[in-house]
Amino acid sequence: MSQIDVPEIDREDLEERGIGADKTFDKVLEASVGRRHFLRGSAATAAATAALTAPGIFLTGKEAQAATLPLTFTSVAETKADKVTVPAGYEAHTLIRWGDPLFPGMAPFDPTKQSPADQAKRFGFNCDMVAVFPERFGAPAKIGRLPYPSYIMCVNHEYTSGPNMFENYSASENEALTEIEAHGVSVVNARILNGRWSYDVTSPYNRRITGTTPMRVTGPAAGHDKLKTPADPTGTLVLGTFNNCAGGFTPWGTYLAAEENFDQYFANRSKITDAKVALDHTDYTVGSGASGRKWENYVPRFDCAKPEGVNEPYRFGWMVEIDPYDPTSMPKKRTALGRFKHEGATIALTRGSNKVTAYSGCDTVFEYVYKFVSSGTYNPANRAANMDLLDAGTLYAARFNADGTGVWLPLDLNDPVSGPLLAASTYPDGTRRFQTQADVLINSRRAGDAVGATPMDRPEDLEATVDADFYGNGKMFIILTNNSSRQATSSTANVTSGSRAGAGRAVPAKADAANPRGPNRTGHIIEVTETGNDHAAKTFTWRIFLLAGDPAAAATAADNISLNGASTFTGDRFGSPDNVTFDTSGNMWIATDGTPSNYPFNDGIYAMPLSVTPGQPVPVKRFLSVPAGAECCGPLLSPDNTTFFIAVQHPGEDVSGLFSNSQSKWPDGDYPRPSVVTIRRTDGGRIGS
Asked: DSSP 3-state assignment of 382?
């Protein structure tokens, strides 16, 4: 059989796993259905799947009200149980757990014998976003019901917690290096047979992307002096990705992994001698002293006091694009999407122009909402032509006006309005902060400051409602998790600490129209409508969709959910919304992260219809609860809406210890293991009914 041209480092990896290069996506594709058929499918298949599949939905006005199917399940009760609690008539099963092997011939996981090399071949720690790609189609939208359903599943691994990975954790070298390999992304073949999901260790698609995987830097900031290190004098080749929280997936069948709180891995900012570099890293809250994990003791690139580490933080905080169909491909850090603490990257296409829009939030209090609009256009008939669409375009930050209108402010030195504002941003010594457009992208936070974007209450997920081909209707929802530092509207104080302590940045702490509660301990959701229903538009309107909290709370309580005297939702109380997904029946499903900080029960999933008339309360139902100490991540519905995927992150995290963990021993009864879980109705029917 013929061989394809595989870079040597990737060929060795495949050979080590017993996989020939002829078994990669391109060759399997050529041998089966052909590239065009793979990407577009037959007309019959496209017609059959159009009504079944969507990463989101395409519903507006009366169409939405007519199409919405009721949520008839019985809400689960508030619980602190150490299990995944689901409604009557549903069942939950663990699909894959931390430490499970991804390749043939590996021994069962033994947490007392962990090593970096072993972890690099196993499912990583603290799973977050989940995405599934059809093995026989070229984009997540084109899945449908296959005769033998098989998918390529991508899962982020946000962070590690040594005390929950190792018994008697000591931050040793072996523990540190193992933690590095437990980060990143797992790519694994998953399939459903007779109503039960499993994964295949023999699949050629299986892959681990870790904190040491080589990655290419692309786009405007590639090669910038700030991205250069002794190990990479070109500024274009980075080892690894960290703190991958949420992300996204594209119409051309690639996976986007967002780098969020990367600052926590770096140490000794106070020892940097270049004042400008030190201030840049302060903007991203890199620690002034030792890090909590102590990686800097063993790997110089995590020590900002050393030549290997002083520029290393600039190389993180990007959006990483991965091709799940080609295990030999090198992940790419797309710098055109900006550098900040990315929570996600939701893709929406504009019908007619085929412009690609990517929405993302900087997940920190008093930070910004962003979107990227591509210069190029999506070509549904040519996958290869789309592979670099995220390398060129315009990055915007949002300003929310008090009258319910908004503006997308271009972070572009050449823009006639934003350009002079960006050029006027200076370091304390008076020199320009943004000499080039690459500088703007490297410090997108300061760029947002300069143009006057609106500081928000922890903007996490941004999700657009789109159809089966990723074309949107102009609707987008912003999930704002919480902000206990937000103050009452009467406050005259500025926020000068917390998110950017010591960086010389001060913003008003008082509540405003888009962030109406101070303090905001339970979060809220904003609905955005782009002008002309065009996701590439430069203006929009917005409204508060709901305020999270307790419908029974007193009017003066911090978790009161009323706005202008009217309740924003009814039903089950919840706090700290994090990520959302949509079903094909007109409902939104919310995963929470932090409900236990306000209420005596576990995080979970909450469902609600989108068809409620503005001004009327939204009915909310609790669909499931996750185990004790866990966060609920990665909500995803299968295309036919018969499976709900979630990632159970950090069960038992409130206490230290592995075997000795007293809070959780989920899922197997011996020690806590972050895991991906599938939820299905016992009769195989639609989720929600």
From this structure: coil
Question: Is the dihedral angle over the CA atoms 398, 401, 403, 408 positive or is it negative?
Answer: negative
Q: Is 83 exposed, middle or buried (0-12, 13-18, 19+ CB in 10 A)?
A: middle
Give the H or E element holding residue 577.
strand 577-582
Give the other-Cβ count within 10 Å of 371's Cβ. Answer: 30
Q: Quick one: average pLDDT of 207-219?
A: 98
**Which region among 22-31, 398-407, 460-469, 559-568 has the lowest average model confidence (pLDDT)?**
22-31
Average model confidence (pLDDT) across the chain: 89
Q: Which two tokens stand for residue 448?
A: 């947002």
Which of 61-70, 125-134, 289-298, 609-618 shows the lowest mean pLDDT across its residues?
A: 61-70
Report which of 206, 205, 207, 209 is spatially closest to residue 240, judged by C-alpha positions: 209
- Please enumerate in sequence order all residues whose Cβ is within 8 A of that of 475, keeping only pairs 6 or more positions apart, or say none: 60, 464, 465, 527, 528, 529, 530, 533
Q: Please, which contacts does 614-619 make with residues 24 or more away whose CB atoms are closer than 8 Å?
A: 614/543, 615/566, 617/551, 617/566, 617/567, 617/568, 617/569, 617/570, 618/545, 618/546, 618/568, 618/569, 618/570, 619/71, 619/569, 619/570, 619/571
Which pLDDT value is given to residue 20?
Answer: 44
In the structure encoding, which two tokens stand for residue 676, read together?
């991906």
Find, among 286, 313, 150, the residue nearest to 229 by Cα. 313
Contact 316, 242 (CB under 8 A): yes
From edge to edge, which strands make up the β-sheet containing 577-582?
A: 569-571, 618-625, 604-609, 587-592, 577-582
| Contact yes or no for 419/412 (Cβ under 8 A) | yes
**Mean pLDDT calculated for residue range 364-384:** 96
For residue 398, which amino acid is it?
A: A
Rounding to the nearest 10 degrees, give the CA dihedral for residues 220, 222, 224, 227. Answer: 130
Q: Which residues contact 461 (CB under 8 A, 6 or more apart)?
A: 246, 343, 344, 346, 361, 477, 478, 479, 578, 579, 580
| Type of residue numbered 472 | G
Q: Would the CA dihedral through 364, 369, 374, 377 be positive or negative?
A: positive
Q: How confident is the model at residue 689 (pLDDT cuts 50, 70, 90)?
A: confident
Q: How many CB atoms lie within 10 A of CB 201?
A: 14
Q: Is 163 exposed, middle or buried (0-12, 13-18, 19+ CB in 10 A)?
A: middle
Q: Tell me: the pLDDT tens digits for 1-50?
A: 332 222 333 334 444 444 444 443 333 333 332 222 222 232 222 322 33
Q: Identify whether the C-beta of residue 483 lies closer than 8 Å to the C-beta of residue 515.
A: yes
Q: What is the pLDDT of residues 647-673, one digit of tens each?
A: 999 999 999 999 999 999 999 999 999
Asked if the model's pLDDT at residue 123 lies above 90, the reply is: yes
Question: Which residues, in sequence order, are CB contacts of 289 under 8 Å at separation 6+?
Answer: 267, 268, 270
- What is d(CA 632, CA 640) in angstroms, rounded to the nearest whole number? 22
How far apart, in whole angstroms, are the C-alpha atoms of residue 395 and residue 415? Answer: 11
How does residue 150 score in pLDDT terms, banded at 50, 70 and 90?
A: confident
